[in-house]
Fold these 3 entries.
Entry 1:
Amino acid sequence: MKKAIFAVLLTLLITVMAACGASGDNSKDKNAAGDSLWSSIQDKGVLTVGTEGTYEPFTFHDKKTDQLTGYDVEVMQEVAKRLNLKVEFKETQWDSMFAGLNSKRFDVVANQVGKKDREDQYDFSDSYTTSQAVVVTKADNNDIKSEGDVKGKKAAQSLTSNYNDLAKNAGAEIEGVEGMAQSFQLIQQGRVDLTFNDKLAVLNYLKTSGNKNLKVAFETGEPQTTHFAFRKGSGELVDKVNSALKDMKEDGTLAKIAKKWFGEDLSLIHI
């Protein structure tokens, strides 16, 4: 009887040790994959970055030169420069952005990405911008002045955006769109009532476009930080990018880029 009990206990012990070993191996595999990714990028000398190219003032094309520019673009260019890498941007619609990252079409996403509800699936850099959500309506709309007025109204939102969650939580009926420009178009056409979007992007658009048909109805939600997004297990690449961001914060480069685009330092990095 004692021998039988001993045999059972021994079997259980071996099983537990094997499971622990497997867990350790998985952790080692993830670390090795992250190190391998960084080594591969170093060998190529190129960091491949997913970005929209249509989200002014963060990532868009200059009307005169047609060159890709914007706050996120400049920050990522400076990061790559400090890592002794060239940067190659691959323009992708927002709703396809994470599919592109998952399929290894690019190494990182630079597109004002919030990490809420995504941390289990992706790695993130330290934050490099802090902003807040606003609600945009037609200029002559006097019915929507606060979040309580949103319930039952139609909101144009990118379905994979954090702003879509804000709209749904406020009780809006959602009309899916590809980006901010389409949201504004639908509002002006009277097909929807509003859109939730980033305050900085909206103010920049209203300032540069001279569009008098739209207005900011109100600010809402908690201030949000934005981050560069990576595939889970990107390891050393994330560490290198964070190191570059930290240096840019400390030497004033990040603040300089932010002031160029927004007139103030938005680069609240957690060091």
Note: The longest strand covers residues 214-231.
Entry 2:
Amino acid sequence: MSNELAHMPMKQLVKQDAIQQMLSRTLADKASQFSTSLINLVNGNQSLAKVDQMSVIQSAMVAATLNLPIDQNLGYMWLVPYKGRATPQIGYKGYIQLAQRTGQYLAMNAIAIYSGELKGWNPLTEDFQFDPMGRTSDEVIGYVGYFKLTNGFEKTVFWTKASMEEHRMSFSKMSGGKTPQGVWASNYDAMAIKTVLRNMLSKWGPMSIEMEQALANDETAPQTPLNVEAEESASETTDNMLDKFRQQQGEVNTSDQEHNTEDQGDPRDQS
């Protein structure tokens, strides 16, 4: 049955009794709105229409369980086709939203820095000198991220454009190589800002369970098909789905931790 559902158009798929029951168990009164969002999403992205449609639902469920909208125009979450399946990719707005929910962040932001705006950067003291009126061209030379906690702790990080490119080529599962692909090609600055935020939060910021789930599921294609006939409660369905994602992510998480350790030196040491 799962194989048959995987190739069914989304408009028909969400009308199947088994799918509707599964969505109702998991999302309760939000199931109908979720189904409509899925149809609009796939109709607006022909690349998504060509992949395993159950993987589209499964990836979108990651956004739903994190209470993030899947409207691609909002930038909280993207569903990206990758090797015949949909992969959830959290945007920088999604990470900011999750961090704000913890109640531990007073301020947080990350932006692109253009030629002429950077006046000085000391990676040891984290003294970042920035003049937004000094821009001399539209060339992006780097990305800066900042947060301040309610306890007064502050963190500033700066990545040069070269550091970001090196990171993308080395660690992006879907956009490695010299030429950006996918979301990196269409929304490079947004993905770069997301990378700065994700790296900064995972190393120095307080992490809620939601944020840990987001990190585990980000850019990880679901491999285990959803059991649409499972007799589980909504919370059990959600928890099991996320647990499966984290188990599948196990080896990748270990690799990401190693990458993060390597990333720490390069971007901040360059100015």
Note: The CA atoms of residues 105 and 149 lie 4 Å apart.
Entry 3:
Amino acid sequence: MKKIMNLLMCPVCREALTLNERTWRCANSHSYDVAKQGYVNLHVVQHKHSKNPGDTPESVQARRAFLSAGYYAPLQQAVVNKVRELCIENLLDIGCGEGYYTDAMQAEVLQCVGVDIAKNAVQVAAKINKNITWVVGTGATLPVLDQSIDLCSSLFSPIPKQEILRVLKPQGYLLVVTPAPQHLYAMREALFEEVKPHEPSKFVEQLSDAFDLVSDDVVDADLKLNQQDLKNLIAMTPYAYKAKQERREALEAQTAFELHAQYQILLFQKKA
């Protein structure tokens, strides 16, 4: 049995954290209690920009309900298959939200850390899988030690490049999932005058100096939504607050809606 490594880092002094009973503590005696729900808050006050950063409770609930209905299961499975192929020991899921993907990926590794800035999302996540170290934290200072991680994943989340480079082991991996050009096109067409296609290639360009692209896959799924699922999908996307109110209301009035989901799965490896 491989020894489980301490991966977490003190956000104040950057020393390693050790768990004793229900408290994470570093050599300089900074301590962080595990909340009763089973997560630890490493988002120290000086890094916060607002009282409740991250997703609103409404978007968290909407996403949880929509994902629970299984619409993104083909993507979840494709992501799990990618992780399985890598045969790695640990992973850090950046922007884990309620843990829909994190929970599925955890079965493929010995150690899994999920981090999100939204405390309300992490509280939900912590209830679904006790084998994951759930952390409220930020991409600006990822809560793990230098060169400790085999795989960082960012699924529909920001990509804090310098921090990812810091925490990945030499030749570690980065898995990025992002909307492909046709993703939810019919929905965006209903919400906006002008639809700009998503551009997954921009991530490849942004990362090309420090990462090699290992694989690039597109996953397609056709969605047949009822009215409630459609409302949930609208609420969980960034389109919700960008669209004009009357357009959103007109779309939400539809009792059924068919659309196409399309995702790009990009796997990168840190250059030697």
Note: The longest strand covers residues 211-226.
